[in-house]
Amino acid sequence: MAQGRLRLPRFLNLAAPSNLSMKMMWVGLTITAAFVLIATFSPTLQSWGWLQNPTDALINPIHEPPSASYWFGTTRSGYDVFSRTLFASRAAWQVLILATGLSLSIGVPLGLVSGYLGGKLDRILLFLMDTIYTLPGLLLSLTLAFVVGKGVLNAAIALSISYIPQYYRVVRNHTTSIKTELFVEAARAMGADTWTVLSRYLFLNVIQSVPVLFALNAADAILTLGGLGFLGLGLPEETPEWGHDLRLALDALPTGIWWTALFPGLAMTLMVVGLSFVGEGLNEFVNPKLRNQ
Known about the structure:
This is ABC transporter permease. The chain crosses the membrane at residues 20-41, 91-112, 124-146, 152-170, 210-236, 256-279. The protein is mainly α. It contains 11 helices and no strands. α1 crosses α2 (81-117). The chain starts with 18 loop residues before the first helix and ends in a 7-residue tail after the last helix.
């Protein structure tokens, strides 16, 4: 009956990754933690309200370069770039957590059920997920954004659809390969029902790649949200968002107002790099063969 016991999940039974991977992981975690703190405390860190017009630009339009008064300068409309950049990190976190959380909560259970039960349900779900997976993520998000409209939740829904097949495919493939092993067969022979087998014997053994997907999808969600904002979709225009601010900065660049594009773009890039480093570091934990390449 030893075969019927739950095995230690593979991702908890791995040797330490390489020094380079650990450095990448710590750099990524540091950057990510910094953006979490910025998003959390942005109301107290800001120098001006993100909708406040510190230079009375509605009456006398003027822009200020970066200075001691305005660290990141102001836009041509007089809005403080520093405050908008800080507040945009909060919107980015809200969207990426919702988007990746929705896709994970749908894709993982579907992958488990599909891989374990097989049959007609598996073929239908596989066809549906493969169809979605073949569509370009940004194009699919753009189309859905037109349908669902603007807003944090709507943007998250538009982004999450393209990530669901990734979780589904990974979990389904692992479930298909593990469900015939002896410890699963022993559990079924002892009378375990489907829910027990899925939750106790399969779940922890097939999710080793999910943290990697979560980190990489979070990085992709930032870029996709920026693309939606740049095209005038995603979040309402009054909400600070890096992609939207970059679109507004395009008209200002020819006049020498470079700071309105630099700081939002730099913030978005740093956040994507941080999340990507976390994902690559996690990848070595769950894929030990990569350490020998």
